[in-house]
# Entry
Amino acid sequence: MPAIINSAPDCVVHKEGANPDDLADFILQDNYADCAGFGTFMPGSTYGEDGSGAESIYMIVTWVGIVVMIVVLVAWVVLENRRLLAAMVGARETPPGHVPQPGGVGEDR
Amino acid sequence: MIGSLLAQVESLKDAASSAGQTQDSLILGEQFYFFTVVIMWLIHAGFMSYETGIARKKNALATAMKNILTIAVVTPTFYYFGWWIYNCNQPGLPIGPNSSDFTAAACQGGIPWSDAFGPNLTNNINLVFFLAFLLFSWTTASIMSGAIIERARLSAYLLLACMLGSVVWILDAAWGWSAGGWLTLRFGFHDSIASGVVHGVAGAFTLGVLFNLGPRIGKYTREGLARQFRPHNLHMTLLGLMLIFTGFYAFYAACLVISSTAFPGWANIYLSPTTLGTIAMIITMGFAGGFTGGYFASRGDPFWTVSGGLAGVISVSAGADVYAPTLGYLIAMASAAMVVYAGNWIEKSVRVDDAVGAVAVHGVAGFLGMLWVGVFAAGYPTGVNNVDSSIGGQLIGMATFLPLGFLTGYYMSWVMKKLNILRVPVEVEFMGLDIAEYEPNLYLPEVAVVDEQIVEPDGTPVEAHIVLRTARDEVVS
# Structure
């Protein structure tokens, strides 16, 4: 079945079937024999390299993560502010001397 | 001819054997750091229990959630830029040309788009070593969390936690807690298990935040005398501290570098030799001395006795790789006693409302720990330049860390205060954060706010709602 998005780096090859010699535990399969780094969308690296830096698609994925992280932090501030203001208004509207109780029902909530 | 071939075969065998040993060592290191990470989670379970027990009932859930959500924000921020700060800024701030070269080998493992930061068969260490540091980051942020409970906004805390856990502490770690840091290379700065790097800086940052946050409503009388809020569950607090202590053994272990193919197999963060037994011994003697000092200085107060154990350990951490056990015991005892007095002074004289004594226990003990190395452990060659540790080097480190932590915490919280996003509204603080932040119908009806008591400065317990309503009205008017 074809992949919707092939996120594997080029060092991962796709061979049909299995080689009987490469199925045992701790033996690298032929498909990965050239790979050192092989994370999704990563540039990938092969044995003997020192590792490689940014390449376009992985850089984009990383920056999407950074932007999402920032949006989440801002959303936390905004949503909590709304909730606290609502609670503050509710507290001002309750009669003097009334303290809302956790677990209360009806007017006590 | 044959002799030459045999020599070549032997040489290849040796090379293979050496490569195999290196690989075995890396895999052993991978497993070692993995298990330290697992056990260090107990520190966070401990912080959560500790702070939740200290909080009043009406703030218990909000306090616990704050600790859990530390993990949600510090993890991505530390991943995206914290690890880069550590790996790329050891010579100093990246303000000069080429001072942060992304292609430098030291930086490669720290940038989030590096392929050493994902599945990589030639790198067993980078990710798991990152995770150990990440757990240190959670711990550093959690040190602040307890001090600001019951009145700080959750979102404010989370932003401050990102700054402390993913920027401030890891920057000082780059400078003074690495083999290539400028404090280490130039001044022989020695803080092997992070007395100041983690605890001292976090305490200074927290103090800066507390100045802007202010005390809880009703904490001080009109005359400025301190009232005591009763912990809603002191047993939970003590259990939390015991969990923290358990996790601390893993924290200590994770601060060492392991290599099974080299003698003695262990080194401190500066790559100077030590052993796992040495630091385990010092942490244990530190607890013993700290509990004792805390008990006698506080005249048997349970909170300060147990906190004294923590302070004792923190105070011996900087020199835990070289201290003799007796010295660790004595230093911890004296430091814990000092911390008790410092905590009371901060609360009653400076009038800073630190709900869990974090500034004293972590900040004061952390800076004392750095100082004690200069006094009691000078002369040890530290780091790859082998510069002797000294009182001068320690003082330079302290003079660097104190403003770094305090000013960052102060000015960041000052900006948040101006934006009115630092503290919850008075009405919310009065009724309790749990009701405002979460579904109110969480507790059984018998868990009532009005049942709580507050202890006046003269020791008289009174109904909390009477004191708090008066204090709230004073704030509002």
Observations:
- Residues 2-54 of chain B form the longest helix (53 residues).
- Strands of chain B lie at 228-229, 257-258, 266-267, 381-382, 387-388, 453-455, 461-463.
- DSSP finds 16 helices and seven strands in chain B.
- Chain B touches chain A through 53 residues (CB under 8 Å).
